[in-house]
Amino acid sequence: MEQISESHARSLEAAKAMARAGADVVVLGGNPINQSLGMENLDMICIKLGQEIGTKVVTSTQSQIRALRALGARKVATVHSFGPEKNTDHDRSMRNLGFEPTGVVACGHSVQDLGKIPGELAILLSRQVKRDHPETDTIHPSCAHWATAHAIDQIENELGVNVMTSQQAIFWNALRTAGIHDKLAGFGRLLREF
Length: 194
Description:
This protein is an alpha/beta fold. The protein has a domain at about 65-170: Rossmann fold. It is about 50% helix and about 15% strand. It has a four-stranded parallel β-sheet with strand order 4-3-5-6, with helices on both faces. A two-stranded parallel sheet has the order 1-2. Helix 4 (about 60-70) crosses helix 8 and helix 6 runs parallel beside helix 7. It starts with a helix and ends with a helix.
């Protein structure tokens, strides 16, 4: 818990620096850190911090919730870059976001290996989780540090599901919060339609 508190404190200092630099929106990243503050507290934390620093503030957690709602997600399967010992955390996180988890598949990498994950792994794991959990309507390649943007359209088209990645949701929500409503092709329904 001490590490989470320390990470949150660092995020607040970074948010202040970004606001001083002229950012239109500041995103507090780290879904586990956000959720540890209490889901019910996130809106107020963002409002208070935004008032303090003079710019809009959102969290990665809020971004993912908004993205999942925009996509009409109900039953969400997660594929993630870490080991299977994190599966329960990902399942719980999806429940905390307010959606029914249908399954979790891990790819077994460490934080240090994120840049070495083969590009096709997100697609392979998505095929696996959809095959194992056919009721899934949305697949969530988790971890904003895992390069998955290239796979979103292929997963959606091939498997007939929505895709919401952490990085995609953060980017989308930051743009929309800043008043930018351009539609972008090539990165899934979320950026193309909403």
